[in-house]
Amino acid sequence: MKLDRLGTTALSAALVAGALGTAATAQDREFTIAVSIPAATHGWTGGVVYHAEQAEAQIEAAFPNVDVIVSTASSATAQVSALEDLSATNELDALVILPFTSEELTAPVETVAANGTFITVVDRGLSDDSIQDLYVAGDNIAVGANTAEWLVEQLGGEGQIVVLRGIPTVIDDERIQGFTEVIEQSDIEILDIQYANWNQDEAFTLMQDYLGKYPNIDAVWANDDDMLLGVLEAVDMAGRTDVQYALGGNGMKQVIEMVMAGDERTPISTPYPPSMIASAMYMTAAQFAGQAPMRGSFLLDAPLITPDNADQFYFPDSPF
Amino acid sequence: MKLDRLGTTALSAALVAGALGTAATAQDREFTIAVSIPAATHGWTGGVVYHAEQAEAQIEAAFPNVDVIVSTASSATAQVSALEDLSATNELDALVILPFTSEELTAPVETVAANGTFITVVDRGLSDDSIQDLYVAGDNIAVGANTAEWLVEQLGGEGQIVVLRGIPTVIDDERIQGFTEVIEQSDIEILDIQYANWNQDEAFTLMQDYLGKYPNIDAVWANDDDMLLGVLEAVDMAGRTDVQYALGGNGMKQVIEMVMAGDERTPISTPYPPSMIASAMYMTAAQFAGQAPMRGSFLLDAPLITPDNADQFYFPDSPF
Q: Which N-terminal stretch is annotated as signal sequence (chains A, B) (predicted)?
């Protein structure tokens, strides 16, 4: 640590003050970063709220000149109101937003940007991507493709599988596209592919359907770990031992625990981590606290989660 | 700041220790991040060294559990040796590397990765991109395209220009491609386009050549701010007032000072900032200090640097 290099900038002064134990209050902080996210309405967004609050505490401790404000909203309309409140009561240097919907949030975010606020968009893009300074998103094509590559290898390039789709969205389309493009290069047959809306109960019902229709199913891809839980319940209830692999995606805590435990039927997952909100918050903080250039696009990889690396994706205190 | 959320992890303990003023020594630090970069052999790499050292001090102050080691090398061979030394004397959690050359560094970096070290590659890719966990680079096509769009607008879509190329590399090819694709959509004529190897003296000589050959030149694009300085000298020496715009790229300090001063001939630049090493270091630190997922690709935008935003790209203490 070269403290002699510090001392010339406001940042340095703040860091030194922090190191000397001076408590920084919101009033002392030079930069304000607002974080607007959906409330914890289901598993994945529950994870987003958890990680945003963790990152808020960590970033404020690390950078005494940065104040982070996390705001949750339970609908697109509520998020629009929250943005108005945040802008009215604070001078925002940056806004990190995971928009409820692209359509309803684009104009309100544009209004915030017009004040000179740095805009970081996470996961779901706005309708006009020229508004954002930084875009952080997962790679849904890789979620599907990496899972498919693993499955092709395990099944020796042949067999019969069924697939469950989520809610009809670009995210679902991309996952299915990445998966099917790889499967089509093999001799694996997709027996059936239907929507279950990323819903555990609907996935349970759909899987019961599949099990009734097909006497042999070598593997199931549920495209999402919430749906995987419903699939596993249906398979177990039917006592079907032909199902060698049942895979999901997203890196849900319960599923990572299976991976860590060396589960034979569910030995992998792929991350589409709600902690990407923390990636976006850290990058935005570095733009201000460190003057590190952060305008651009960050696309997260979707490496397979295996017993070897599962601890990196495991947050025992997170709801997801 | 919600300190009640902390206290369960090593990170939190370290943060609390930091806030209480306990000085952390390298021995206390949980994570070691090595940064391997070219020595300050010319302007841009001088900037890389400056920003790496600044970010080292800032990151160590922000994250008491992270130790950063910056190592410079004056050749590809020296960088390979430096990697061996770094690996032999430290257990590296991460390596941030701006490789001298792709060919010579790929195998040595692969060896480091095989130990489980997280690999962040900056700017110049390795020959095998499956080795890296995180890739951080500028967008050279955007450097050319954004400059061309501005120029087309200023010239009203017509006129005669000359272009200087750098060293024959992918970087130069991409800048020229981005630029010419936009110019071809207009009625602007590129009178001449020759290499001057990103060298100020060669650019001076080439520009003298252009000025002798062409009685009217509305604008010059030098593709790089080092070359721009040579161009400006040649134009001034010839007293040529037909040259309305002389533009470079990279965001060199002297050129940003022109932009800030409202220079009429050089009112903009585009960033290809050496501070991208700091972006890569902050992102890598967040992977460890914050458990924020940082595997993926970050492509920096190349927004125009104008008088309105020039301060964000200006580092008065940097050599570049």
A: 1-26
Q: Edge-to-edge, what's the strand order for the sheet holding A219-221?
A: A187-195, A158-165, A219-221, A245-247
Give me the pLDDT at residue A301, please: 93
Q: Residue type at A175?
A: R
Residue range A270-296: mean pLDDT, rounded: 94
Contacts of A122 in chain B (CB under 8 A): none
Q: How far is A165 from chain B (nearest CA, A)?
A: 25
Q: What fold characterizes domain B8-138+273-313?
A: Rossmann fold (3.40.50)
Interchain CB distance below 8 Å, A57 and B273: no
User: Which residues of chain B are within 8 Å of residue A278 when distances are taken between CB atoms?
Assistant: 286, 290-293
Of B279, B293, B303, the CB nearest to A271: B293
What is the reported pLDDT for A25? 52
Per-residue burial over A206-230, b = 16 or more CB atoms within 10 Å of its CB, e = otherwise: bbbebbeeeeebbbbbbbbbbbbbb
* A188 contact partners, CB below 8 Å, separation of at least 6: A151, A152, A155, A157, A158, A159, A160, A161
pTM value is 0.84
Q: How distant is the Cα of B279 from the closest Cα of chain A, in angstroms?
A: 5
Residue B57 distance to chain A (closest CA, Å) = 5
CATH of region A140-260, choose from 2.170.120.12, 3.40.50.2300, 3.40.630.30, 3.40.190.10? 3.40.50.2300
- The per-residue pLDDT for range B130-158, each reduced to its tens digit, is 999 999 999 999 999 999 999 999 999 99
Residue pLDDT, tens place only, B18-64:
443 444 455 567 999 999 999 987 788 899 999 999 999 999 999 99
Residue written as token pair 């001063």:
B261
Q: Which residues of A touch B275 (CB under 8 A)?
A: 291-293
Topology alike, domains A8-138+273-313 and A140-260 = yes
CA distance B249 to B182: 16
pLDDT, tens digit, for every residue of B255-280? 999 999 999 999 999 989 899 999 99
Burial A259-295, CB ≥16 within 10 A → b, else e: beeeeebbbbbbbbbbbbbbbbbbbbbbbbbbbbbbb
Using CB atoms, which residue from A23, A279, A290 is nearest to B293? Answer: A279
- Contact list in A for residue B295 (CB cut-off 8 A) is 300-301, 303
